[in-house]
Amino acid sequence: MSKDIRIKKGLDISLQGAAEKQLAQAIKSNTYAINPDDFHGVIPKIIAKVGTEVKAGSPLFYSKSNDQILFNSPVSGEVVEIVRGAKRKILSFKVLADKEQQYEDFGAKNVASMSGDQVKSHLLQAGCWPFIKQRPYDIIANPEVAPKAIFVSGHNSAPLAADLDYVLAGKENELDAAITALSKLTSGKVHVSVNNQASPLAKVGNAEVHTLSGPHPIGNVSTQIAKVDPINKGEIVWVVSAQDLVIIGELLLTGKYNATRKIAVAGSSVKSPKYYETKIGAEVSTFAYDAGINGDNVRMINGNVLTGITVAPDGHLASTVDTFTVIPEGNDYEFFGWNKPIFNKISYSRALTFSWLFPKKKYDLNTNTNGEHRAFVVTGNYEEVFPLDIYPLQLLKAFSYNDLDEMEKLGAYEIAPEDFALTEFVCVSKQNHQEIVRKGLDLMYKEIG
Amino acid sequence: MSLKNKLHNLKEQYKGTKMAPAFNAIHTFLYLPNETTHAGAHVRGADDLKRTMNMVILAMVPCLIWGMFNAGYQHYSAIAGGTPEFVSFFDHLKYFFTLDNLLIGAKKVLPLVIVSYVVGLAIEFLFAVIKKHEVEEGYLVTGMLVPLIVPIDTPLWMLSIAVAFGVVIGKEVFGGTGMNVLNPALTIRAFLFFAYPTWMSGDKVWVHDAVNRVGTPDAISGETMLGMLAQKKDLTYGMDEAFFGFIPGSVGETSTLLIALGALILIFSKIASWRIIASGIVGALAMGLIFNGVIAQGWITEGSKFYDLMNLPFWNHLLIGGFAFGITFMATDPVSGAQTNKGKVWYGFLIGFFAVMIRVFNPAYPEGIMLAILLMNVFAPTIDHYVVQGNINKRLKRLKVKTA
Q: Quick check: A308 contacting B, CB < 8 Å?
């Protein structure tokens, strides 16, 4: 069964440097790192101390809030370093990879005959639970509370993000197994949304498939949830990203935890943007320099330009991303940049900015904020790029002044920080909306739970 | 070393000192800062607040230039004992765009602009330094609005006091740009009106030199059209003259044509809300129609002091007085106006509605738009409250359907 989800509000930011649809094998990384900060709100408790030999799929640490939630090593090898920061906070677990990879054997399963509890304990045991996130709060799902529905977005609408139809091609069996398993975890439905009928996800069983059309943020799960089955107070929805389904599916079919991923290496500073096959936690340098980087005044981003996290050139690929973007840094002044006509940047307005004349043009944007931080002044522009039935400015203000009651009433349960990436992009006052939302959601989680 | 590098080094020197905001305010006028994103989206849109404000100023420039010529035109017409007969717009421009007219305008209008900006920005800089935040751009627009909405002969000392009052009480005490309840430009205008009522109304301040000549053999008069209507005098100007702007009035508010041009610029560039402007016009027309209807019913007869203004054809309200200027440039202020799209429709409508109502019922000062906007500024949060409450109720209802 297929249903349509359509939105009109939104904004497609078209940038230079989209990844060509050709796959390259990344050089084997020496070390792999898992960074607990990639999983928001997790305080790690060490399982594998420095010097421990681990297999691919062996746990490195568990979450302090729930000792059943394990976090796996993507490869077999030796834990060589646990990097700590201020106040001895654990920043990352580094594993020196073996030449010959050994996999923890969790046993192949017949998914169709498993019960919900069996699926749950299997995923927990095999360290695949962190792939399941929950709304509200956009954190790792609490295994104790069953969700009313599970959502999978089969379309990345963010700028330069990996094309899921391409990276998921040929993985139909894994996807089908994973969706079947997920469907046992909820009393409701699994909702899968795809960009077109050619998507490998379009044919999965045990799920309701929706067809998407519209600009970004159509690929964001919140948009789809709001159109299909909005979250009310007290309800929980789980969300799994499509690439992680492949890992879950392979675990169920073969018993192995295989952290291999196809990522898009994109951005205007990449010489030949294309797809790479690599593993979670690999060194960024194993593919970035193979694709080629223009100049050294660049920013490397784990993820897309709207929601990604800055990573150092000697850093590692984050656990949760399918895109790696490199764009030029914008740390330079621009003479009369505030009043001269602008042709080379994207603008939602037409205030002597002319991107509205060239809807097809691809832009080379840098990281300059194009202005200084100001109080909220302009109104009405967020609504134009925000498709949910929520007042974005009012909700942001509620988050800013920590009014829990108002956050709840205005729909804070229905959103994740990524939904405010576009309002942040068009914001004339250059406020950091995603940060405001993240802090607000954390406060809600702490106070309301 | 280039200017860019020199300024960059200076910026680093000023960093952390008290004067940093003042220096940055000037620096950022020359150069878009070298600030990069640190949290959230890595790329950002091209617009900042300066660009937005700049656009509003650009939209007002035609009105300013027209106002300068009009100052001279009205002055010399009054001395000559009446305006030249109006035949057609282009024909009339030969009386209008003359060097003499411009010189009067430059002599009278430019000082208003300069005083408004110097006093206002000085206070903004002072507060930025004291409160250690960047100088915000709000005053760029206010500073341009103020000279356009005051009578030509407003003494500069009076303007300075009013600007100081408006910026401090109207804006800074609330926390600066983005926090104010009332439109600062209108707060300034209202202060002038209530503090110096004898100056700000009547028939003498609208034409340059009229005040000085009172009681002399050379006395001239220059009444606004609203003044004439309120005094039950015959209109000496036609509606076509009012539309093009060959009439006395506050400096920048006379030419409905150029204001409409400004409105188009603002709407096209997505700076001003078309909802406020459109619904404001509808509101004014609605009230005008109601008054016309009252006259048609014979409830108000010719003897009444309200008769002339009520009897004015409803659409004429858009052309005379400050209505067009106010609804275009001041009702659309996003900070003091309604902030939700639905709220903006109601906000604009009520401004138009009350502007015409106040006009008719307040013959002492027959300009309703100022008070109407200030009134609705106060009620804008209430309007928004009900709009947002509607959204909240929808959410609660969804929950109830679920649990029932």
A: yes
